[in-house]
Amino acid sequence: MAIAKAERLMNLALCLLGTRRPLSKRELRESIEAYLEAGSDDSFNRMFERDKDDLRELGLVIETVENLDGDVGYLARRDSNRLPPITIDAEEAAALGLAAKVWQQARLAGAASGALQKLRAAGLPEDLDPYGTHSALEPRIPVHEASFEPLMLACRDRRPVVFDYRKATAARPEPRHVEPWALECWRGHWYLAGWDRDRGAERVFRLSRITGKVRSRAGKFTVGIPDVVTVRETVASWAGESADRSALIRLRTGAGYPLRAKAARIREVGEGWDELEIPYGHGLDAWLVEFGPDVVVLEPAELRADVVDRLRAVAKG
């Protein structure tokens, strides 16, 4: 079945590329054997529409032309389907290969694999192995949240969404109406940056705190989308990367290595504890809560209070 479909797609592509004038559905059906074998007009129409969409997904530019009599024809102009030679050196090929291996879930893995195949067809040299140069590297970006895919599609299609979101300090989730801008991965967690319509301000949402289904809404965005660099800076700030002061914490010996890597100063205090001075920015309280009983906040007082509030919210469920 796979071979038959591939042959059918190839024949359709050759017909569309080889004609100088638009071909009607009837002419295409008479020219391709698989279409002649279709049992009915409805069966042929469904097959043709699927094949046309598949060819467009593969990158073929198919034009739909309507003549003076109202009849619709199709063709693929060669000048619209011709790419200049692509030159990619070994380092660039290795980077593309690593990017294609990053995704673990099937949907994005298939898209990445398809992108590499298109590059091969467009001129990526066969002697350059995108996977071979750095084969010891196995990058992974895990995506466990069910909300990732609908949010990714909403960001792509510029569609407003609604979802229930539970703040770390809240016992119950609340509905949020958001214009999604971009998804960013930070410290192994996925975040959505966007415009919160209810609060009239930009906000960042951690995907692991989204409950239930993400629901799309009709209508256009009401505010402009910032530059991608600005969005990343916003996520970094909400994730605690933009620190403007320091915090003093006590950390259990042998634990919290990510915190130790950020520390400006580490001092042993005995009895299985170390004292660390770490950068204090937005989101640090949420990060510290993840280390549970291995962390005790000493100062400032507001950070200690925020961590205690989050822990109480977790205890309440």
What does this protein look like?
By secondary structure, the protein is α+β, with helices and mostly antiparallel strands. The protein has helices at 2-18, 25-31, 33-36, 41-57, 90-102, 106-122, 148-157, 228-238, 257-262, 284-289, 301-316, and strands at residues 63-66, 72-75, 161-165, 174-186, 189-196, 201-206, 210-216, 243-252, 265-270, 273-281, 295-299. The protein contains eleven helices and eleven strands. Strands 6-5-4-3-7 form a five-stranded antiparallel beta sheet. A hairpin with a 2-residue loop joins strand 4 and strand 5 (189-196). The two termini are 51 Å apart. The mean pLDDT is 81.
SS content category: alpha+beta
Shape: elongated
Order of neighbouring strands in the sheet with most strands: 6-5-4-3-7
Order of helices and strands: HHHHEEHHHEEEEEHEHEEHEH
Largest sheet: 5 strands, antiparallel
Unreliable segments (pLDDT under 50, ≥5 consecutive)? none
* Total number of helices: 11
Q: What radius of gyration results from the CA coordinates?
A: 27 Å
Strand content: 15-25%
Distance between the termini: 51 Å
Summarize the amount of helix as a percent range. Answer: 25-40%
Number of strands: 11
Oligomer: single chain
Mean pLDDT: 81
